[in-house]
Amino acid sequence: MKIVIDHQKFTEQKYGGITRYLSCLAFEINKLNHDIKIVAPLYINKYLTHLPKKIVTGFHFKFTNSHLTKVLGLSNNFLSQLIIKKYNPDVIHESYYTEHPTIKSSQPRVITVHDMIHERFPNEFQNDDTIKLKKKSLARAEHIIAISNNTKKDLMEFYNINESKITTIYHGPTSNLIDINSEIRKTAEFSKPYLLYVGHRSGYKNFNLLINAIGLSNKLKKNINVIAFGGLPFNKEEITLISKAGLKSSQVVHIVGNDNRLKNLYQNAEAFVYPSLYEGFGMPPLEAMSNDCPVISSNTSSMPEVIGDAAEYFNPESAEDLLKAIKNVIFSNRKNELINLGSKRVKIFSWKKCAEETLSVYRRL
Fold first, then answer.
1. pLDDT digits (tens, 9 = 90+) for 117-128
2. What is the per-residue DSSP string for 216-229?
3. What Cα–Cα distance (Å) separates residue 98 from each residue in 6, 140, 210, 297?
4. Comparing C-alpha atoms, which of 138, 117, 113, 139 is closest to residue 128?
5. How far apart (Å, rounded) are the C-alpha atoms in residues 6 and 89?
6. Rounded to whole angstroms, how far apart are CA atoms 112 and 97?
7. For 18-23, what is the mean pLDDT?
8. Higher pLDDT residue, 120 or 178?
9. What mean pLDDT value characterizes the chain?
10. Helix/strand/coil for 114
């Protein structure tokens, strides 16, 4: 079977959940001896540089800007069409939503839906055409992959899609592309105990709740720092929030880095905190569990489905409830219990299983 994944997200995203998912999926399908290609003639994505050359059709651009990204996208639409005529795939997996397909062909199409954030929180996405483009993509897809049953349920609710057209397939836990040093735990980056937050912080991500919760406790303010990994530097509103909560700027630190650094942070954290109001799946909790980091998570959307019993849950609308959850974990034996539960839970998820189930969808088409 010949499979093609199109260029869209690889043209505009250096790092990110969607391109990591597709890269890991392609890597595992290739290991199962199937002919899969990511056709991205001109791309900026870093994950593709770790894939075997036979999987990726294209050249890597190290530097880009918004204008160049648009030019690359238009160029890729044209170049992809030439490549597809020669390759003649059996299935096309679209990497994101477009009004018109980036690759014009009669082959059946698959698309993966990662979340329904735009539909659940429309006020956070003003002047955004994602929903319009998503409708077009879902309509032309022969089959849809949802990354959780919660996302599948939301798809059926918002778009009235027949259940038979949707298959739930879970991600693997962490990247399978890079051999990360297993001895990295020996060197802690920070001397003071800290809670770890990962990813973007605005809107439904609910980072403010974590700061407000710590601000309610003098004991935590004296003894615990917060490390926010990824996303943009703190803005003025966040700096004001941190100050009003009674925390010093040195106690709440924003850092960025590669997978090695993130692994180090997970392995040395008191706990990973996930206050999000909504997630389609939630990769960071699996990453935390894979690195023996106890998980403190909100109890909404896909989180209980994915994390199971391996987290201390809280109501993401209540700073007091989050504070209680933090104390229950870091000031008791609950921390070790969650580490053990997490190491068992994460074994349910694998990229090999994700690849095998995705191949089953391709075969049916």
1. 999 999 999 889
2. T-HHHHHH-EEEEE
3. 11, 10, 36, 33
4. 117
5. 12
6. 10
7. 94
8. 120
9. 92
10. coil
Confidence class of residue 312 from pLDDT cuts 50, 70 and 90? very high
Which pLDDT tens digit goes with each residue over 206-222?
999 999 999 999 999 99
- Placement of tokens 């299935």 in the chain: 91
9, 23 Cβ separation under 8 angstroms: no
**Residues 225-257: b if buried by 16+ CB within 10 A, e if exposed:** bbbbbbbeebeeebeebbeebebeeebbebeee
Rg (CA), the chain: 21
234 secondary structure, DSSP code? P
Q: Which pLDDT tens digit goes with each residue over 257-305?
A: 888 899 999 999 999 999 999 999 988 999 999 999 999 999 999 999 9
Q: What are 51's two structure tokens?
A: 């894939």
> Phi then psi for 352, rounded to 5 degrees?
-65, -45
CB-CB neighbours of 355 under 10 Å:
24
Return the H-helix or E-strand segment holding 119.
helix 117-120
Report yes or no: 61 and 89 within 8 Å, Cβ to Cβ: no
Name the token pair of 14.
């250096």
Residue 136 near residue 98, CB atoms below 8 Å: yes
**Contact present, 302 and 287 (Cβ < 8 Å):** no
pLDDT in the model for residue 73 = 83
pLDDT at 314: 98
Joined together, the tokens standing for residue 9 give: 């997200």
pTM of the model: 0.90
The pair of three-digit structure tokens given for residue 169, joined into one six-digit string: 């397939």
Instruction: Give Dmax over CA atoms of the chain in angstroms.
Output: 66
Task: Decide: 108 and 2 in contact? Cβ < 8 Å.
Answer: no
pLDDT, tens only, 35-51:
999 999 999 999 999 99
Dihedral (Cα; 218, 219, 221, 225), 10-degree rounding: -170
The CA distance from 198 to 231, in Å, is 8
CA distance linking residue 288 with residue 342, whole number of Å: 8
How much is the average pLDDT of 20-33? 95
CB 205 within 8 A of CB 197: no
The answer to whether the beta carbons of residues 300 and 316 sit under 8 Å apart is yes
